[in-house]
Design goal:
306 residues; alpha+beta; two-stranded antiparallel sheet; 24% strand; 7-stranded antiparallel beta sheet
Length: 306
């Protein structure tokens, strides 16, 4: 069937509401709600928390924007869509916990519809989720990857290995030759080439969005009360610098938002509140910090360890 933007938008709006309600229960604080309009077309709803009990900063955004020409970040690998009218909608979240033993997490699910002149509309879905720990726990990484696998399993055995590998390659800081985190799943252009119908692609995307809370909440509950000190907070701030570098240099969603004239406060809500950079710093050999950098943040087959 053809794309159904009404049904798709209704799902994204509901997903944001469900996730925020669960996160508010975890934190014990209320997210700020900020509705915004985009002069060129569309708008969104930003839900943000700062200085919470659990989350030092985090946001869960819904956006639905449209315009007369696809931004360059969305057409770099699809030059035939340059200048085509489009609409894009989705939910994107990033959570930066205060406790360094609780990992940062990112999740995004989205839908694009482009209408090139003289052609039928072209639609596709994208999204995924990934985990960025500061201190490595095999149990947490395995649980997260298992939840990702289970979300994709109903749609075929090949999706998880493909999307897991895509995530490992995508969330990689090429200029530092190191992964951002332990990965998860990532996909884009799902349906654009006709390899999957709209209903199936939408169902897969919903399954990923619906799996987020089950993938992340148990990790939070295991680690949120672990004691920490200045050393751990200092290392957390150092590693957060890698997160900032990736989002500003490589992240497609950030680039799309900036190039499409999106709302800056909502686009940059993914930035952590406290970050540090140091010149040519290396953790002490044999330390937990060195273990994260030397052996934990790799493209492992985490499910083989379960």
């Amino acid at each position: 069937m053809n794309a159904d933007p009404i049904q798709t938008k209704a799902y994204f709006v509901d997903l944001q509401a469900r996730i925020v309600a669960a996160l508010e229960a975890l934190d014990g604080s209320t997210f700020r709600t900020d509705s915004w309009d985009r002069p060129a077309g569309g708008g969104g709803l930003t839900r943000l928390i700062e200085e919470g009990q659990l989350f030092e900063r985090g946001g869960c955004n819904f956006s639905h924007v449209m315009g007369g020409g696809m931004p360059a970040s969305a057409t770099a690998h699809r030059p035939e869509l340059a200048g085509a009218p489009f609409e894009a909608m989705g939910v994107s979240l990033v959570l930066h916990p205060r406790n360094p033993y609780v990992p940062t997490v990112h999740m995004n699910v989205r839908c694009f519809i482009a209408t090139p002149e003289g052609r039928d509309p072209i639609w596709w879905f994208g999204g995924g989720m990934d985990l960025t720990p500061y201190y490595g726990f095999e149990e947490d990484a395995t649980h997260f990857h298992r939840a990702c696998r289970d979300a994709l399993a109903p749609f075929g055995a090949d999706f998880h290995p493909r999307f897991k590998d895509w995530c490992d390659r995508y969330f990689f800081l090429k200029h530092r030759n190191e992964p951002r985190g332990v990965g998860g799943i990532f996909f884009d252009d799902l349906g654009a080439n006709g390899e999957i119908d709209f209903d199936s692609a939408f169902a897969l995307t919903r399954s990923v969005g619906d799996a987020f809370l089950g993938a992340y909440t148990p990790i939070v509950e295991r680690r949120r009360d672990l004691p920490f000190g200045e050393r751990e907070r200092d290392f957390q701030a150092y590693r957060r610098g890698r997160y900032v570098e990736f989002n500003l240099v490589f992240d497609r969603g950030t680039l799309f938002g900036l190039q499409s004239g999106g709302r800056i406060e909502s686009i940059l809500m993914s930035m952590p509140p406290i970050v540090k950079w140091r010149y040519d710093w290396h953790p002490e050999p044999g330390s937990p910090e060195a273990r994260l950098c030397d052996s934990f943040l790799t493209g492992r087959d985490w499910l083989a360890q379960s």
